[in-house]
Amino acid sequence: MKADVKSDIKMVLIVGSAPDALRVSGCDTSFFAQRVVINNAWQVCETWDCLIYPEDFPSDRHPHWGQTGGKRLITANEFVPVQNRFGGFVYAGGTMAFTAGYWALGALQPDVIAYVGCDMVYASDPGQATHFYGQGVADPLRQDVTLQSLEAKSVRLMALAQRQGCAVVNLSEQATSRLLFPRVSFSQLKACAAAAEWNGLETLDLDAQAIDAALRTEARLAYMVPSGRYWEVASGFDKQELSDVDNLWLAAMHKKALLVA
């Protein structure tokens, strides 16, 4: 039997649908205050607390009512207003991995957000699984002006989270990831929870001036779409200007994450 870990650190787990997400079913997740699953990921994380999904998520892939007792379903009605508080979808990146992160940051107010199954690196060989359930659509790789650099979008989330006193980390064991968050393990996070401190894990040192420059440029462009349906007005966005913003976010990351033994 897995023992609960009491902690003064509020940790939130975000689970995506990459094959790596299957690891969650064999890991102790009791030390997370909330477990947020994206789209189909409720199928691999029995302990989920919140399921977040977009308007076009097929209803036949929703959990049955008997599987949602005491759990929350997070739809656009909940996540769009929170996303807008962090600058909106155009700057955050229009894919659910980032939407889930900003919603968790704003709505749950955690000290740590930990991702798994969200590396956004997809199998290229025909017949090879792209998602834990088999073949799926690589949504973050679609042609979209808000997704020119997934790496930059991950830095943006990490930077805004740090300014709110929240660390964002990646639990992935994959060789590559489009998320530039520091890598940690489930066991390391559990140890931190038990000690109620970071216990030697270092977070990324981001450049404050580059962050401020990126935010000023976003404010100048004013690409805010309150409805969240940015694709309806995407023709009004300057692709190069958004690429320049991405470069400012990437410039904010001036050293790689290190795990201190």
What does this structure look like?
There is one protein chain. This protein has 261 residues and is of the alpha/beta class. It has one domain (11-251). It is built from 7 helices and 6 strands, in the order ββββαααβαβααα. The protein has a 6-stranded parallel beta sheet with strand order 4-3-2-1-5-6. Helix 4 (150-163) links the parallel strand 5 (112-116) and strand 6. Helix 6 runs antiparallel to helix 7. The longest helix is centred in the middle third of the chain and has 14 residues, at 150-163. Residues 1-7, 130-134 and 255-261 have low confidence and may be disordered.
Total of helices:
7
Q: Strand portion, in percent?
A: 5-15%
Number of domains: 1
Low-confidence stretches: 1-7, 130-134, 255-261
Which sequence of strands runs across the widest sheet? Answer: 4-3-2-1-5-6
Structural class by helix and strand composition: alpha/beta
In angstroms, what separates the terminal alpha carbons?
A: 29 Å
**Main sheet attributes: strand count, strand direction, barrel closure:** 6 strands, parallel
Mean pLDDT, all residues: 85
**Rg calc:** 18 Å
Secondary-structure topology with pairs:
Blueprint: E1 11-15, E2 34-38, E3 50-52, E4 72-74, H1 76-85, H2 89-92, H3 96-108, E5 112-116, H4 150-163, E6 167-170, H5 186-195, H6 208-221, H7 239-251
Helix pairs in contact: 1-3, 3-4, 4-7, 6-7
Q: Concise description?
A:
This protein has 261 residues and is an alpha/beta fold. The protein has seven helices and six strands, in the order E-E-E-E-H-H-H-E-H-E-H-H-H.
